[in-house]
């Protein structure tokens, strides 16, 4: 359903951000003034995920999965990288055509 149109994305330069990018539909907060294409694609994948799950459910799921992964891996960065939303985004952020071929709820494949 959402693959037919380009996702709205408002990029906000946020130099004090502790990560490279952070998405809260429709805003993408980026630490760099000129973020690389792969990062914008990564954040667009998160925008699609947020539309599918709903913003509130996305963040509840994200935080709960992070906590489970933190117990599982006992390492913050490894826990973050193994969240299903992040696994999908990192696996596909270098493919500029991914969102046009992505199936709905594709993040479940990475769970």
Number of strands: 3
User: What is the H/E order?
Assistant: EEEHHHHH
Unreliable residue runs: none
When the domains are counted, the total is: 1
Largest sheet: spatial strand order:
1-3-2
- Oligomerization: single chain
User: DSSP helix count?
Assistant: 5
CA distance, first residue to last residue: 22 Å
**Major β-sheet annotation:** 3 strands, mixed
- Categorize the overall geometry: globular
Work out the strand percent: 5-15%
Rg result: 14 Å
The pLDDT mean sits at 94
Helix content: 40-55%
Structural classification:
mainly alpha
Could you provide a short overview of the structure?
This protein is mainly α and about 110 residues long.
Task: Describe the 3D structure.
The chain is mainly α and 111 residues long. The protein is built from five helices and three strands. The chain has helices at 37-53, 55-73, 76-81, 84-92, 98-101; strands at residues 10-13, 21-24, 27-30. The radius of gyration is 14 Å and the shape is globular. The mean pLDDT is 94.
């Amino acid at each position: 359903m959402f693959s037919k149109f380009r996702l709205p994305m408002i990029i906000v330069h946020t130099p004090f951000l502790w990560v490279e990018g952070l998405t809260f539909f429709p805003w993408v907060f980026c630490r760099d003034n000129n973020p690389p294409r792969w990062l914008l694609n990564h954040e667009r994948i998160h925008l699609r995920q947020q539309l599918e799950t709903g913003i509130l459910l996305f963040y509840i799921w994200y935080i709960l999965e992070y906590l489970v992964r933190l117990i599982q891996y006992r390492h913050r960065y490894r826990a973050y990288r193994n969240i299903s939303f992040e696994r999908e985004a990192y696996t596909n952020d270098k493919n500029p055509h991914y969102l046009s071929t992505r199936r709905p709820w594709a993040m479940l494949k990475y769970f």
